[in-house]
Every structure is written in C-alpha cells, then in structure tokens.
C-alpha cells in the first residue's frame, strides 16, 4: 500500500512524496525551483506523517529540479528537523541527481547530512538513477542487518 502527498507552494516548486509501507521507503520528488522553506516544510511533513513507521529510507529524486534557493538562516532549522527525523527512524537518505548541475545543487542540501561529528543526523548518499538508489538501499539494509520488512 502506498500513500501519496503533494505540496505545492505558489507556482515555483512542488515536492511530492509517496510512502511504501511494504518496503518502508519514502520516495520524494522535487520539481522546479526548490526553496529552503519548502525543504523545511517537506521534512516536517515527513516527520509528522503518522503512516511512516520507524527504520525508513528516504529516496529523493531531483531530476526535475531546476534551481535551489537557499537561505543561510534556515540551516539550523533544517538540521533540527533532520535530527528529529533521525529520532523517528530515518536510516539514511539517497538523492538521485542525474547530471552535474543537479548534483551540484544537491551538494548544498547534502552538506546537512555529511557531518560525521553529528551522529544525530542520518547519513546520505548521491547516485545518478533510481536503479542505483534501490540497489544501494537494499545492499545497505542487507549488510547492516537492518530489518525493514
């Protein structure tokens, strides 16, 4: 069973996500120009979604994202929500960035996950397609002995 949510703020961007209860994966898609406020709202929606259980993996596609507008003042808020998601059971996030421009945009977001000194934030990875994302997710689950099913 899948549950889909879509957030559209103005006409600038859209973030949607679908939660698959069987795999315990959240599939998120960003379109258009992504703003740091939308990142916060999207992460908060994941945090507050009672259908998402613990030990979940977030797979985020930015293949349809065209730009990133980031406010430095939002950095602390994003880190706080990511810590809360980790407490909820986020195992890790995989970003799908299908070209160099998208990868560069994701690097800005990705920096919130990379802090090895902050064990309260789940780690993240960047791959270039959905097949690699799923392969990484299933391989990591198997090697870590994580039982998501």
Describe the structure.
The protein has one domain: Transcription Regulator spoIIAA (2-Layer Sandwich), CATH 3.30.750. The longest helix is centred in the C-terminal third of the chain and has 15 residues. It is built from four helices and six strands. The chain is of the alpha/beta class. α1 runs parallel beside α2. β1 and β2 form a beta hairpin.
Report on the biggest sheet. Answer: 6 strands, mixed
Low-confidence segments: 7-11
Overall 3D geometry?
globular
The averaged pLDDT comes out at: 82
Strand content: 35-45%
Superfamily (CATH H level) name: STAS domain
Class of secondary structure makeup: alpha/beta
The value of Rg in angstroms is: 14 Å
The name of the CATH topology is Transcription Regulator spoIIAA
Q: How many individual β-strands? A: 6
Note the gap between the termini: 13 Å
């Amino acid at each position: 069973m899948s549950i889909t949510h879509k957030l559209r703020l103005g006409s600038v961007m859209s973030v949607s996500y679908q939660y698959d209860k069987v795999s315990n994966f959240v599939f998120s898609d960003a379109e258009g120009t992504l703003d740091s406020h939308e990142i916060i709202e999207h992460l908060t929606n994941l945090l507050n979604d009672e259908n998402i259980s613990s030990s979940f993996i977030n797979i985020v596609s930015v293949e349809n994202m065209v730009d990133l507008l980031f406010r430095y003042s939002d950095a602390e808020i994003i880190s706080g929500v990511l810590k809360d998601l980790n407490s909820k059971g986020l195992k890790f996030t995989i970003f799908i960035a299908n070209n160099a421009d998208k990868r560069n945009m994701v690097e800005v977001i990705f920096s919130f996950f990379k802090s090895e000194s902050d064990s309260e934030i789940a780690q993240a990875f960047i791959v270039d397609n959905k097949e690699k994302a799923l392969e990484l997710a299933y391989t990591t689950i198997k090697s870590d002995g994580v039982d998501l099913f």
